[in-house]
## 1
Amino acid sequence: MHISRKKPSYPITPALRQYLRDYDREAPLAVSYADLRSYSGSFALHDRAGRDTLWQTVYYEPQALRELSAGLAQVYALLKTAGDLSFTDSLVADRIDFCHFGNSQPFRVRILNQLNDNYDFFYVKQADASRLYGLELEHLLSPNSMNFLTSGPTLIEEHIAGIPGDDFIRLRLSQPHLNQVRIAKEFVKFNERCFARLLGDMRAYNYVVAITPDFEDEQYRVRAIDFDQQSYEGNQRMYQPRYFADNAAVVDLCARLLKPENVRQYQTEERTLMARRARAERHRLRALLDVMRAHDLAPPEKVEELKTALNRYHRTQKFDYCDSMGDLVRQNLWLMLGPRTLSTVMP
């Protein structure tokens, strides 16, 4: 499958900016994305096995670093504690990494608590409208709360903990203690969530697997971490993780361990949960979709291609009335989650 690696960045419209203000996603920030671009140099960051991570650790002039560190501690406090600065004297930005690979070209900031040497991460990115819609849809329709803030062209995102999907497949999928049936179940549900809200490009390195010990076993959750390809591509299969080659090992696991009735059960379970979340957040979801429907988020030819593909998939002609990617998301949710459930969201 061909993926648009150089997807253009779509600006935040006044309507989207107002939505972000209305739902406390907009805040004044002490440090912007542009401020972090003024680094003096960089060197490659390698993992514990000595492999290149594709991240570069950047460094700054001493005075600039002191100012940035203080500002980044304030940003972290705003993200985590709604701006309570009472503890920021003990926080320092002890490492800043930059990744030129990817549409948002993010900075990753490691915040260290000097009192106990504990550290946490957050990301500073260029604010792309596609990604913001993706983050909000994930927050409203998935089991995962998304913590992020915007200010002008800057986006701040909380770190999502988990094992990168490619590492999980390569290192853990065949381990004897792994509950493979539960992994297969979660991948089916993940595939269903992505397709329902049209989140694309879920190759293995664009999601993580979070593992939670249970009293008898382990529970797993597959979580998207990259939202740049929200409703952009025209190929319907781009929104179904099962079609990506680097997910083949998990797809084979699903085919081997799950019967068709199991798959239908897990799909129905996930759609039911999404519908319940949509009802609970109906006013906010409707506001988001209204803004998204009026926003051009893909070339017209991609909208037409996806419209045709979704008509074929659902055996309907209802997508003929859609004029934008936001319209397609709305109609796809309507068909997959049920008109009765979403009538208050999409009358």
## 2
Amino acid sequence: MRFTRRECLRAVGGGALGIAAGSAKALARAARAESKGEPSHLGMPGLYKGRVVAVQDPGVLVSGHYQAEAVRRMMRLGMKELTGADGWADAWRRFFEPGDVVGIKVNPVGRPYVISDATVVREIIAGLEAAGVKRQDIVVYDRYRKEFLQAGFDKWLPEGVRTSYAVEEGDAVQQGIEGYDPEHYMDMALTLPGYSLESAAARRSYAARFITREVNKLVNLPVLKDHQSAGVTLALKNMSHGLVNNVSRSHSSSGLNACNAFIPAAVSIPVIRNKVVLHILDGVKGLYHGGPFGRPQFVWEHHTLYFATDPVALDHIGWEAIDAKRLSVGRKKLVEDTPDQFSTFVHRQPEHVEIAGALGLGEWDRAKIDLRQFKA
């Protein structure tokens, strides 16, 4: 896939007049690499395969509200320990440089209880700016504009930061191509009941134009949550179900559940695998049951931020944290759980994490995962 400079400028969400020439060049470089099938050295599993940094601060929440100074300390310590850099700016420069157009994938689904928090997003923006990324080259994204606005993300973003989305809102079928790129897709012999495999729209999931044409790098900001069909919804699922269309087919009923295969396949789309270079899991609050929607009776304060370039290792550790909380309150581990009124799927499928490891997206073997734990 090749883009002219004019196409690159136009693709950046209507903000072409404010985009620097260096930004257009970054998009063009990414497009050229994709057309040649070139993997990025920053692409998953990234610079630090198997490494997960966990930073905990019991003071990060006061009466359920994030404390900006505590988040600031946690972010600086986490990025330093992930990268081994001497300072904040140097840590971010391992991944980003002036001229990059960088997306931030947020998560609004568990609103209002467990969603990407303003304080964490602002620190990510500060880190990008420290690396030389211009504010107008930072784009905060979620797939559905309506959910983005309902979560209030637009109200607290710093001036100059742009927003993007794939479509206005979700629907039961999700096979529309508007907002998605017909040249980047995952083809799987799985459709919603009643649809034919002969239909490309029914058996394919197309990547959002946001990830294919608007940015050349992405920071993934998932939250720590249980999920009744996928088992957990962490780094991998925040990409698979947030960056492509036609996701309903992955869990179309309580028995027809294929998240274990769908999630790794979607994340393996080259344009996604190569552009997502950093994962910061917000585990300050967590949801241990009844996900993905936030249910206050299952929310707990975990007081932890996690940092990784490897989404498989990160999700393995996040899965452990959720299981530990479940056991502490008398529930079964995710793989042993049975349906109830809050989680209705016959079998949860957190094994998508291990399958993603088998596909080379990261390190699954717990003995090879380097978990580094710190107190801020």
